[in-house]
């Protein structure tokens, strides 16, 4: 049994085009993401799953000297993209996949390790970090390849295929699901993922504040900084999270 981290990324975001390669202090958002994921202790390999579209060639080129595996697939059917990547890497049905998105540059490796351990101990089919108890941008999901194959065979709605995992938690009679929650909640109103320009501006302020230490600061340290600097925390307060299917 091995744990693989699959980070989905593509260049042509509708709200903030090219966001994953937008640079802060000479490094792209995807670079920060990769460096922090590399610190996850229980992960076997990190895989960037992008699309076969020509405008994603720049992502492949950018990653050519990075210590990650790159796999490509359908632009819109990301579920199929994940399955094909797993098959190309010869995952077994008992291997686990942690799903991340490349527009979350400040993922916390300690939290990802905690999620992996939580999932292994709970014995569930699907687990996630509860974004009702921690800021979006530190979230992650985990499931095994067997479950992903079942979802791939059964999920027919376009939004289920685009967002990979909804079929898991929409069918609790088929899959045991659990969430790693934090009590008390850790400033879940904050937002560290990058969908809009305001999100990028906030992340830029966070990265600039921590400087060379940014690869190693924890989610709690980032949350504390934002709570102490409300002018920074409010930069993206106007940004709402899109609902499934939007």
UniProtKB/TrEMBL annotation:
CDD domains: GT2_SpsF. GO terms for cellular component: cytosol. SUPFAM superfamilies: Nucleotide-diphospho-sugar transferases. Gene3D superfamilies: Spore Coat Polysaccharide Biosynthesis Protein SpsA, Chain A. It comes from the Bacteria. Pfam families: CTP_transf_3 (PF02348). PANTHER family: 3-DEOXY-MANNO-OCTULOSONATE CYTIDYLYLTRANSFERASE (PTHR42866), SPORE COAT POLYSACCHARIDE BIOSYNTHESIS PROTEIN SPSF (PTHR42866:SF1). This is Acylneuraminate cytidylyltransferase.
């Amino acid at each position: 049994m091995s744990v693989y981290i699959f980070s989905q990324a593509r260049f042509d975001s509708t709200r903030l085009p090219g966001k994953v390669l937008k640079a802060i202090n000479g490094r792209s958002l995807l670079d920060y993401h990769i460096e922090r994921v590399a610190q996850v202790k229980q992960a076997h390999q990190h895989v960037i799953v992008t699309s076969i579209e020509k405008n994603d060639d720049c992502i492949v080129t950018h990653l050519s000297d990075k210590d990650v595996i790159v796999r490509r697939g359908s632009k819109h059917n990301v579920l199929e993209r994940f399955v094909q990547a797993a098959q190309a890497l010869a995952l077994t049905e008992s291997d686990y996949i942690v799903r991340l998105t490349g527009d979350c540059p400040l993922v916390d490796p300690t939290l990802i390790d905690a999620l992996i351990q939580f999932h292994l101990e709970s014995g569930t089919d699907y687990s996630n970090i509860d974004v009702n108890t921690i800021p979006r941008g530190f979230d992650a999901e985990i499931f095994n390849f067997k479950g992903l194959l079942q979802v791939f065979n059964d999920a027919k709605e376009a939004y289920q295929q685009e967002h990979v995992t909804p079929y898991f938690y929409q069918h609790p009679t088929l899959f045991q699901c659990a969430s790693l929650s934090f009590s008390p909640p850790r400033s879940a109103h904050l937002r560290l993922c990058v969908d809009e320009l305001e999100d990028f501006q906030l992340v830029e302020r966070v990265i600039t504040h921590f400087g060379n230490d940014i690869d190693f600061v924890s989610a709690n340290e980032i949350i504390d900084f934002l709570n102490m600097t409300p002018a920074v925390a409010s930069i993206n307060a106007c940004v709402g999270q899109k609902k499934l299917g939007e």
